[in-house]
Design goal:
heterodimer, A: 252 residues, alpha/beta, 4-stranded antiparallel sheet, 9 helices, 29% strand, globular, B: 435 residues, 2 domains, 8 helices, 18% helix
Chain lengths: 252, 435
């Protein structure tokens, strides 16, 4: 589904990803872990098409398409979803209006019928239950006045409604209490299927107890330096990231 | 201005049939005053941001014929309870018979009201032609306009619509001077909407005096949607008595050169005023919003909010002054101006000011100027919303604070339409989101 080859990318002229290669197949859940500054968020933002994050060489192929050539909205319509690390507050833009416009933009692009207001509300209500968000949130402005946990749950709610093929979670677990963490994990688990792929970017192993990955990768200094199964996450939790860095130094 | 001025600097007043002696005298005084004051220039502090050179260089004609093209239509259909339509300064259509069947409601062309007690008491008492040249010009030159009087205790359901259509061209530029008087009696309630639009080159100079009697509730809306080649100078002068409650909303989306003066005097204890404005500009539009809120009596509240959205080479001005007089203790006043600049070349001058003459008040003011939030724009796009729609959503969101507060559905929808009609069509700059 997603094929990243020797990707270099940076921000404000500073190179952060330095030859990253990763293959994500349909139906798989990959966790990307790594210390601060290793390039985790850069990877997420480059994949979603955030301005300022500039790929300089290498390629990203998503379902056979050159992902990097598409503007952000086209990527979303093709089924790429980024749950943001810091969801932005947008005063004056109604949550429900926004999400309906987003869903219909995606559906239209994928050749599906657009949903009318009633159909959309029905779908939204069902998905809200999944993330335990109160219906009152729907009529508020996007993320405005939401607590940190509510913002993250709102990201998962949007993901559930938009039903992306590739979901990228950028440190969605950071700052969450254990209940919110469980809700986020359940939201993602509900999306898991043969057709969906998930890329979980995280600093900690906590989330991976509820959201068990098929593969775990360690990102350091802009490259994937170690890959393994779910047990790698446990090892990292116990030993920290230093041993990997030591291994790397020793290998040089 | 051959038909308006004897020569470029000497104004002779217009007189209309059946004009009472008092009106005659006021007109002559106003003309004399204009001849002394002359056209406003940027040398005066009140006009420092707006030059009228392009206006005064045109040889304006008075012409009451209907402009060419389609018969002008009201944006509200038959929704207003009464409607007067003026074309190039004179009455064109009058749909007020039904409303006037109510003994407490009087809606008529101002020329027919000149003998009424209320007209005699209020006309030209508030809009000051001694100091303000454009008000002097209007007072000397007006030929038509609307008169609305609501008897004490009368509540008008729905809204009254005053519609002004202008039309002219470069060879035949037309000036019109409308004069309106709205008197809301003690404890009455009324909503009045004024709309301005037209085609081609013309000059609208309009003055509306509003009197809110004790405990009266007045909602006044002004939609300025003149042609992009038009000049619009308008004054809304509000006089508030004890415990009256006035809401003034000015939505400016049109006009080449526009000056919106909104002034209010809170002269009775416990009066409250909400003054809001929204200006949405692009191209080379120049819109100067100039407001004065004068707190004369104690225990009055005023909340002022003006928001500007400026694109391309537009120039906007917010120059707002709040005066708290020595007797106006316990004044509560807030003045805010927020602006959104959509291009590198749009310009806004924001000058909020407070002038406080006693120390028992709660007043604050502030202004902000910002650009579209790039993070919010990306957030919307990252969910599949196109760049242009995302941009429009954010622009609308900025304006919605004012639009959504409009109580009358038809009026709110009209504001939304006016806004979308001026919504920038251009895509935001593509930065570096794709290679």
């Amino acid at each position: 589904m997603l094929e990243i080859k020797d990707l270099y990318a940076g921000i404000d002229g500073k190179e952060i990803l330095k030859g990253l290669t990763l293959h994500v197949g349909a139906g798989e859940v990959h966790a990307i872990m790594g210390p601060n500054g290793s390039g985790k968020s850069t990877l997420a933002n480059v994949l979603a098409g955030r301005p300022k994050y500039v790929p300089t060489s290498g390629s990203v192929t998503y379902e056979g398409k050159d992902l990097l050539a598409l503007p952000a909205e086209e990527r979303a319509r093709e089924g790429v979803f980024l749950a943001m690390q810091y969801p932005v507050e947008i005063p004056g833009v109604n949550n429900i209006y926004f999400l309906k416009a987003a869903l219909n933009a995606v559906r239209k692009h994928q050749g599906q019928e657009e949903l009318d207001a009633m159909e959309f509300l029905q779908l939204a209500r069902e998905k809200m239950k999944l993330v335990e968000l109160d219906e009152a949130f729907m009529n508020r402005s996007v993320n405005e006045g939401f607590s940190g946990g509510e913002k993250k749950r709102n990201e998962i709610f949007q993901m559930a409604v938009l039903d992306p093929k590739l979901a990228i979670l950028d440190e969605t677990d950071s700052g969450l209490d254990i209940d919110a963490l469980r809700i986020v994990a359940e939201g993602v688990n509900a999306l898991r299927s043969e057709k969906h792929a998930v890329l979980v970017i995280t600093h900690y192993q906590r989330l991976l107890k509820y959201l068990v990955p098929d593969f775990v990768h360690v990102l350091a200094d802009g490259r994937i330096v170690k890959s393994g199964g779910k047990e790698l996450a446990e090892e990292l939790e116990q030993k920290g990231y230093e041993w990997i860095e030591e291994e790397l130094v020793a290998a040089r | 201005m051959s038909t308006v001025l004897d020569d470029r600097f000497t104004l002779a007043p217009v007189h209309i049939d059946g004009e009472p002696e008092r009106v005659r005298r006021i007109r002559e005084q106003a003309a004399e005053r204009f001849n002394v004051l002359g056209w406003p220039t940027t040398r005066s502090e009140d006009w420092k941001y707006t030059s009228l050179a392009s206006l005064t260089s045109i040889d304006w004609k008075i012409d009451q014929r209907q402009p060419e093209g389609n018969d002008p239509a009201s944006p509200f259909g038959d929704q207003p309870v009464a409607e007067l339509m003026f074309v190039n300064g004179t009455l064109h259509a009058n749909r007020s018979a039904l409303a006037n069947e109510h003994p407490g409601i009087r809606v008529m062309p101002i020329g027919e009201a000149m003998e009424t007690e209320s007209f005699t008491q209020h006309f030209s008492r508030y809009a000051d032609y001694e100091k303000h040249a454009m008000t002097a010009l209007n007072t000397a030159m007006w030929q038509d306009g609307a008169y609305i009087e609501i008897a004490p205790g009368t509540v008008v359901e729905g809204f009254i619509h005053l519609l002004y259509v202008g039309g002219g061209n470069a060879e035949h530029p037309i000036a019109s001077h409308h004069r309106n008087l709205i008197v809301a009696g003690r404890g009455s309630q009324i909503t009045v909407v004024e709309s301005f639009f037209g085609k081609g080159t013309y000059f609208t100079n309009t003055v509306t005096e509003i009197v809110a009697g004790d405990g009266a509730v007045v909602d006044h809306y002004k939609f300025e949607n003149e042609s992009l080649d038009a000049f619009h100078i308008g004054t809304v002068q509000i006089h508030q008595e004890r415990a009256s409650n006035v809401t003034s909303r000015t939505i400016a989306t049109g006009g080449g050169l526009v000056r919106n003066e909104i002034n209010a005097a809170l002269t009775g204890e416990g009066a409250s005023l909400s003054m809001e404005g929204l200006f949405v500009l692009s191209g080379k539009q120049h819109v100067d919003n100039h407001t004065v809120i004068d707190h004369v009596a104690p225990h009055c509240d005023s909340v002022e909010l003006f928001k500007g959205i400026l694109d391309e080479n537009a120039r906007g001005i917010f120059d707002g002054r709040i005066i708290v007089e020595p007797d106006a203790v316990k004044t509560n006043s807030r003045q805010t101006n927020k602006n959104l600049l959509l291009s590198e070349t749009a310009v806004i001058d924001s000058k909020p000011s407070l002038e406080i003459h006693n120390d028992d008040v709660k007043c604050n003011h502030g202004s902000t100027i910002g650009q579209l939030d790039e993070e919010a724009l990306f957030y919307l796009r990252a969910r599949g919303i196109g760049a242009e729609e995302a941009r429009n959503l954010l622009v609308y969101a900025f304006a919605s604070e004012i639009v959504e507060r409009m109580k009358v559905d038809a009026v709110r929808e009209n504001a939304g339409r006016a806004l979308f009609s001026r919504m920038p069509k251009r895509l935001p700059e593509r930065r570096s989101e794709s290679r």
